[in-house]
Amino acid sequence: MPDYDAVVVGAGPNGLSAAVELARAGWSVLLVEQADTVGGAARSAEVTRPGFVHDLGSAIHPLAAASPFFRTLPLEEYGLSWVQPDLPLAHPLGDGRAAAMHRSLDRTAEHLGPDGAAYKRLLAPLANRWRSLMEEVLQPVVHLPSAPLLLARFGLRALCPTPHLTRSLFRTDGARALFAGSAAHAARPLSAPGVSAFGLLLHAAGHTVGWPFPEGGAGALTHALAAYFQDLGGEIQTNRRVDTLDALPSARAVLLGLTPRQILRVAGSRLAPRYARRLARYRYGAAAFKIDYALSDPIPWAAPACRRAGTVHVGAPSTRLPRRSRRSPTATSPTAPLSWSPSTAASILPAPPTASTPPGPTATSPTGHASTPSPPSSARSNGLRPASETPSWRVTPWARRPSNGGTQT
Question: What SS3 class is residue 326?
């Protein structure tokens, strides 16, 4: 008789979710994680100053809030609470201007001026049938659709390279930059087919479920999942590295929430040769480089919309976004680097006051090894006031490349 019905290796969001689903079905489940905590890229910790909680990977979670699976779980009973920023998204354009996404599709269209009607024609059919769209796009690519016309409408736009899509639909830099910055979450060149799918999904989500973050950080989502899993009878073992399947307890099923190379290392001898060769040939995408700041004050954006937004995309004018998004695969650096990922056109800064500064005196008067930098020469074009025009703001930067390949979304 096996020790467990199932063993899940890798306790990131996918592994945790799989373990929860099996435990809900009445299986005995062991969840094994190499790190000292579960969560993978969905973790939070005090990595700069005491009291400043930073997300270690993912931060803003529109698709988690929209997840059909998560909607079936009682995660609110385990402490999960979603925080909705005043504005989901803003993209500074320079000279105190910014394009912004409102929760209301009509408000966003009004804000975009001459491009408002085109924006509504693009997003309204998707936002109005959001749940049906999610049910379609979360299935395997090849499936019998229950909403074929909706999926066809989405697919035709999604396959169009982002520069062509935005140039054909929009006339202003604001609308083009707003959409391109969201499409850049694909972490691929904007000219690649399929990248526009990210822009469509993220904007439709913004007008339905918003772009929220868990109160207390991404780790709160992980803690809720783990607590619910354990209440279902699941067992979690951390600080346990798995080098071979032979080291695991016996089980009816083993699920590997790992990367292709990790699967080869752990289970290579049990894989079909053809499948093992496919895993060995897998080509990883560009990584994301993340910098955490402990701020003494909210970021002094010149554009009012940026000060209200939970996420700010900082990038070049829309005419230069596609060119810059192609630099990473060729191992070349742009003259004005982009601060989120070398392969994308945007930086992700989930920094509303409630998320970037803790309550109490330390929010306004941090002590220790803080510095007082001046914004770079490109700060004006990216929407920041020059230091001479703003109160001094001190930051303590801590740079880290996610070790598990997680991206910030």
Answer: coil
Most confident of 56-65, 231-240, 282-291, 333-342: 231-240
Is 89 in contact with 178 (CB distance < 8 Å)?
A: yes
Q: By the 8 A CB rule, do 44 and 218 touch? A: yes
pTM of the model: 0.80
Q: How far is Cα 305 from Cα 89, in angstroms, rounded to an integer?
A: 9
Structural Rg of the chain based on CA atoms: 22
Identify the weakest region by mean pLDDT among 255-269, 279-293, 318-332. 318-332
What's the CATH fold of domain 4-82+215-280? FAD/NAD(P)-binding domain (3.50.50)
Residue matched to tokens 């500064």: 357
Q: Under a CB-based contact definition with an 8 Å cutoff, are residues 213 and 60 in contact?
A: yes
Alpha-carbon gap, residue 143 to 201, rounded angstroms: 19
Average pLDDT over residues 233-258: 96
Beta pairing, strands 251-256 & 97-101: unpaired
H/E stretch holding 30 reads: strand 29-32
Residues 12 and 32: their CA atoms lie apart, in Å, by 10
Side by side, the strands of the sheet bearing 235-237 are 235-237, 29-32, 4-9, 251-256
Q: Tell me how far apart the alpha carbons of residues 327 and 386 are, in angstroms, rounded to a whole number.
A: 28
**Once rounded to an integer, what is the mean pLDDT over residues 376-392?**
40
Q: How far apart are CA 32 and CA 10, in angstroms?
A: 6
Whose tokens are 């910790």? That residue is 45
